[in-house]
Design a protein that fits this description.
Helices cover 36% and strands 18% of the residues. It has 393 residues and is of the alpha/beta class. It has two domains: 144 residues, Alpha-Beta Complex (Aspartate Aminotransferase, domain 1), CATH 3.90.1150.10; 231 residues, Aspartate Aminotransferase, domain 2 (3-Layer(aba) Sandwich). The strands form four sheets. It has a seven-stranded mixed beta sheet with strand order 4-12-11-10-7-5-6, with helices on both faces. Strands 1-2-3-15 form a four-stranded mixed beta sheet. The structure holds pyridoxal-5'-phosphate.
Length: 393
């Protein structure tokens, strides 16, 4: 977007849509002029409970009046409760709280390196990652990311990352060396085109990690906290990772990230090895606890699966109706991609003018991320607008 009088003091690192949102409620957001939009982006997989979700809002109001920040010098009852909830839901043993997805992945990478060097007493430091992946914008996480565009101009990049093709057993076996300490992957690549990992390949990764003493690091920043219809995408695959990174939906829009680890992997961190000022502050923990409670008490995982079925069915019908324009429909839960034969950007802009917010995942893939409280009517309406947008010249 060109700098206007209103935006020119902001750094120019985002190509922003020309829409100024000022209010949200449920699945609807409104711009300054009062125009409403059906939000099928959930703020990029964040507002999974819809905008201003009542339980989280209430809990945040209570916390705002009680205590905002203490630092991590103190014991922390709300972090303990959130760690209890996340370890119960994931089957992992320990949690560390931070502020974003990139920071959660930094934590995962640090655990893998320090585990290899201090716990196992080896010289291993290299992490295998995959093409088209996205892990964040810090120097380590952009190096881990399998997309050159995010690395442009940031050399020299940190060493210790090897990126190979996704879903490719041979490439993976060839990439493991006596330097490898971990394998970092998304189970559904969100930004990179909505590609799901092959279940056999994921089982093989688990076996290879066990065989070579490597940590399996699963980036669930986009897929975690119910988005795929399970609490975590790894639960679809019948494996348990050593480390899981989370952020996005964990606080329903309040910034919070987390690293979960098995007892053994968590041994990598001793006092003084890792930390963050804001991580796990009382407001963030209140938002996370209320988010987890809402999903459990309102049985939203079942709802994700039901609505995913409805959305996928309609998208597949769209593919049948428009075989020239729609190449494939894929994804898991309410993280669905529609691959087109035309640029996604034009379709997204047209839909936005018609009051529907959708995303891309690469140049020709539309990504749909409705909230867990989306309705059948909204799904039907979104698919109608999408069909019109895809056919619009
Ligand atoms: N990992 C994945 C899979 C993501 O989708 C993202 C963000 O889109 C990140 C990491 C980075 O998260 P954040 O933007 O909170 O740093």
């Amino acid at each position: 977007m060109e700098a206007t009088e209103k935006t020119f003091r902001l750094m120019n690192n985002y190509s922003r849509w020309p829409v100024r949102l000022v209010r949200g409620q449920g699945n609807t957001v409104w711009d300054e002029a009062g125009k409403s939009y059906l939000d099928f982006t959930s703020g990029i997989a964040v507002a999974s409970l819809g905008h201003v979700p009542p339980r989280v809002t209430k809990r945040l109001h209570e916390q705002v009046d009680t205590l905002w920040h203490t630092s991590n010098l103190f014991e922390h009852p709300l972090q303990e409760q959130a760690a209890d909830a996340l370890t119960r839901l994931s089957g992992l043993d320990r949690a560390f709280f931070c502020n974003s997805g990139a920071e959660a992945n930094e934590g995962a990478i640090k655990i893998a390196r320090r585990f290899a060097q201090k716990v196992k007493g080896t010289e291993r430091y290299e992490i295998i990652t995959f093409q088209q992946s996205f892990h964040g914008r810090t120097l380590a996480t952009l190096t881990a990311t399998g997309q050159d565009k995010v690395k442009d101009g940031f050399a020299p990049l940190p060493t210790g990352f090897k990126t190979i093709p996704y879903n490719d057993s041979e490439a993976l076996r060839a990439a493991i060396s006596d330097k490898t300490c971990g394998i970092l992957l998304e189970l559904v690549q969100g930004e990179g085109g909505v590609h799901a990992a092959d279940p056999e390949w994921v089982k093989e990764i688990r076996q290879l990690c066990d065989q070579h003493g490597l940590l399996m690091l699963v980036d669930e920043v986009q897929t975690g906290i119910g988005r795929t219809g399970e609490w975590f995408a790894f639960l679809h695959y019948g494996i348990k990772p050593d480390v899981v990174s989370l952020a996005k939906a964990l606080g329903s829009g309040f910034p919070v990230g987390a690293v979960l680890a098995t007892e053994q992997a968590a041994e990598a961190f001793a006092p003084g090895t890792h930390g963050t000022t804001f991580g796990g502050n009382p407001l963030a923990m209140a938002a996370a606890l209320a988010t987890l409670e809402t999903i459990e008490q309102e049985n939203l995982l079942a709802r994700v699966r039901e609505k995913s079925g409805e959305l996928e069915k309609r998208l597949k019908q769209l593919q049948q109706q428009l075989p020239e324009q729609v190449v494939s429909v894929r994804g898991k839960g309410l993280l669905l991609g529609v691959e087109l034969t035309r640029p996604a950007a034009d379709v997204i802009a047209y839909a936005r003018d018609k009051g529907l917010l959708i995303l891309s995942a690469g140049p020709q893939v539309i990504r749909l991320l409705p909230s867990f409280i989306t309705t059948e009517e909204e799904i039907a309406h979104a698919c109608e607008v999408l069909a019109e947008a895809i056919q619009h010249q």
